[in-house]
Design a protein that fits this description.
The structure holds two protein chains of two kinds.
Chain A lengths: L1 E4 L1 H12 L2 E9 L10 E6 L17 H4 L3 E8 L2 E4 L7 E7 H16 L5 H7 L2 E6 L10 H4 L9 E6 L2 E6 L2 H7 L36 H6 L5 H5 L6 E7 L7 E7 L20 H20 L9 H5 L6 H17 L2
Parallel strand pairs in A: 2-6, 6-7, 7-8
Antiparallel strand pairs in A: 1-9, 2-3, 4-5, 4-11, 8-9, 10-11
Chain B lengths: L8 E12 L2 E7 L9 E6 L3 E11 L2 E7 L3 H6 L7 E8 L12 E7 L3 H13 L6 E8 L8 H7 L4 E6 L9 E2 L18 E5 L2 H13 L7 E4 L15 E2 L2 E2 H4 L2 E3 H4 L5
Classes of the chains: A alpha/beta, B alpha/beta.
The structure holds flavin-adenine dinucleotide, iron/sulfur cluster (SF4) (2 copies) and FE2/S2 (inorganic) cluster.
Chain lengths: 337, 264
Amino acid sequence: MGYILDESSMQKVLDALKKDYIIYAPKRKEGEGMYSDTDCIRYEVVDKVAEIEFFEKSNYSFKEVLLPISQTLYYFTEDEVKEAEPERKKGAVIFLRSCDLHGVKRLDQMYLQNGFVDYYYKRLREAVKFVVIGCGKSYDNCFCVSMGTNVPEDFDLALYPGEGGYHLESRWDEITSIVGQLEEKEIRIPFVEENDVKVKIPNNLSIDIIKSSMWEEYNSRCINCGRCNFVCPTCTCFSMQDIFYTDNGKAGERRRVHASCMVDGYTEVAGGGSYRRKNGERMRFKVLHKVYDYKKRNGYHMCVGCGRCDDVCPEYISFSNCINKLEDAMKEVSNNG
Amino acid sequence: MVRNEYTPFLSEILQVKKHTDIEYTFRMAFSGEVKPGQFFEVSIPKFGEAPISVSGIGEGYAELTIRKVGKVTNEIFERYVGDKLFLRGPYGNGFKVEDYKGKELVIIAGGTGVSPVRGVIEYFNEHIDELKSLHVVAGFKTPGQILFLEDFAKWKQNMKIILTVDCAEDDTACHVGLVTEYIPKLELQDKTNAAAIVVGPPAMMRYSINGLLKEGFQEENVWISHERKMCCGIGKCGHCKIDDTYVCLDGPVFLYTKGKNLID
Ligand SMILES: Cc1cc2nc3c(=O)[nH]c(=O)nc-3n(C[C@H](O)[C@H](O)[C@H](O)COP(=O)(O)OP(=O)(O)OC[C@H]3O[C@@H](n4cnc5c(N)ncnc54)[C@H](O)[C@@H]3O)c2cc1C
Ligand code: SF4
Ligand code: SF4
Ligand code: FES
């Protein structure tokens, strides 16, 4: 069912939602971008439709809503632990793009399926509704079509500010009942069918690719800052961190914080031992996780082709370029026997 | 609601056994299912968590043999009988004694690598007729660093024990040399069907496995245990992943046919 809403009706929908949900959406932060005079678009709580950035890709993904950058798991004293309260008591409505909605499936896979169910993730994941924002065009570095993530699957609402107002497709009864008095319209929320960037993941990709010389380039180019991981909607790693309060040395809290496989210390064990010391090896580990081994385990690729890792890399390292080198690299390693 | 795996439970230290200055076995109060080769996350508020293998299992307790090497383990060594530690787990797959029943079994362990297999040895010490034979080759750096000395003395009745040290300072009852030197000397009836478990530092595992394969052992009869950095122990944090494998969930015990393909 489709409707076209003017700004005030759209705001009414939002206001209705705000009773039971906190609304998270991409918001433009002027002058806060990577370089001077650039903006940063990141997720925040929004009140007004006008605050939402509909026309550009966000620099950071929605994942921080479900997986806070730093999340307190529990408070402790020396002989007691007390589970932390949930970050929010209400449900959440998340505005996001098609690639990101596919990203949710990957987070669910890791946090609800892979072994144990993650209590803290599940707690924030419950009562979450998704509003997918249409993509009128493909943005810089996007390759969702190659990854098969350009068209969304399970959304509650789809929205696009198009001709004559906000085009809204509702699969959510509550909303349908709010907008239901409006006349139903023939609408089509746009999703891209072609990107400038295309990737091809070779079918014969195997772990032999480790032996390729292609990774060496990244030893010097990559500065292991880890930004590519932090912006990625499908990167899920974390490390534990204990904080204690200085005024009472006996009490504190345990947190988990986002971690990056590109950054020093990720594999470090007691006595200083570590794996993948070279940045090229780390690049290889990351790339293969995104387009090889996750699929071996779960049946579909982890990377959703959002291109944010390319957007953010200060060294202009392109992940999609790297994927496109895999085919030749496979030839290289098979020729070497 | 699902269980919160991250919040640990308090467990009392029932007994502390000192092996060396930096290696103690802590007997922790625990009643529940646990297998040798599995591990607990030992958690000390303010200091963090460390994955530690189960080195002994008994009625109402699980033992942890800990080497003092850093932030968390140093702090554990400040605790004594009657004190408590936070634990969560057990995690990981562990060894299945069924895999070895009816076979000739060789266990090769180096240093603290004895901990994860101690439960297996204990089991077969009690049920020695479930195996055709059992050989244990355990290597330590010096006689002073031998762990579980009393156990070895006890086990000697039921199985063949080869205790070896890299170098002896004085005359001791044990052999001198690397564990690998003793592999060709193993007296077995049928090496192609014998099973082996190899646990220890990476280089020791590599050389020992090569030695076993040279002697005719089959890759599908060799089990190993891997160690990796772990922050969660439950398949979430990503640190222990190698290729498509999570050491904390799918391991730490692997059949060599699988383990050999895990390249970091
Ligand atoms: C499955 C498994 C079983 C283990 N069994 C034993 C055992 O029975 N006895 C024993 O003494 N040690 C065992 N270890 C090693 C033990 O976990 C480390 O020595 C311990 O984590 C060191 O912590 P620390 O804070 O004292 O040292 P630090 O060097 O201060 O630790 C720094 C950080 O690195 C992490 N870390 C360091 N080394 C390791 C490691 N090898 N594995 C995983 N994380 C590590 C710690 O979690 C910590 O956050 C085992 C490790 C694994 C993975
Ligand atoms: S953002 Fe670029 S430089 Fe930084 S770790 Fe990632 S690939 Fe390396
Ligand atoms: S790897 Fe890069 S392109 Fe793929 S999902 Fe992550 S940030 Fe997006
Ligand atoms: S230890 Fe966290 S995923 Fe294995």
